[in-house]
Amino acid sequence: MTSRIAGTDRTTAPLTVGFDLDMTLIDSRPGIHACYQELSARTGTYIDADLTITRLGPPLEEELKHWFPADRVAAMATLYREMYPTYAITATPALPGAREAVDAVHAAGGRALVVTAKFEPNAKLHLKHLAIDVDAVIGDLWAERKAEALTEHGASVYVGDHTGDVRGARTAGALSVAVATGPCDAAELRAAGADVVLDDLTGFPAWLAAYRADGSVADLA
């Protein structure tokens, strides 16, 4: 499907692109799996780490509610976040095309942001470890609340892997570019209202070049 965004000169308009982090720029599954295993060992509470990494995206507390009583969730979230740098950072690789996608924004004279539900200090550790150079990192925002940061920073495009990311983009009035690298497949992302669906970020630089050149929006997945 190809459409055109009318009324804006994409070759001269300021460009700010937001990116989600988990399963958009990074494959956080190995590190999160290891962190949940350690949390289980420390607390003596069964956690199915294999299951947890199939539903990444929502805030940590939402996952912890499946394994701990409500009155322990806040404490477990604090413990998890304290352990996270030790168990998750070095275990987590960049997804294919992640650096190139951010570099493409910069090459176009734009700014690249990360807007994520992840605890902001840990998000910054991932980006530093993987040498993914972005202009700002805003954490602790999920779904529609991501629009707060996207609007504040003037993002016209938001790239994510989850239907919650699509909702965040649409709430902010930004173009929703979805990548089918996370828990939501291409059909789910389209049904949620994504303007563009890519198989992964390797296709993003070419898509961005076309979008900047003539405003065309192609669904490539």
From TrEMBL:
Cleaved signal peptide residues: none
InterPro entries linked: HAD-like_hydrolase_sf (IPR050155), HAD-like_sf (IPR036412), HAD_sf (IPR023214), PGP-like_dom2 (IPR023198)
Domain of life: Bacteria
Name of the protein this chain belongs to: Haloacid dehalogenase-like hydrolase
Gene source species: Streptomyces flavofungini
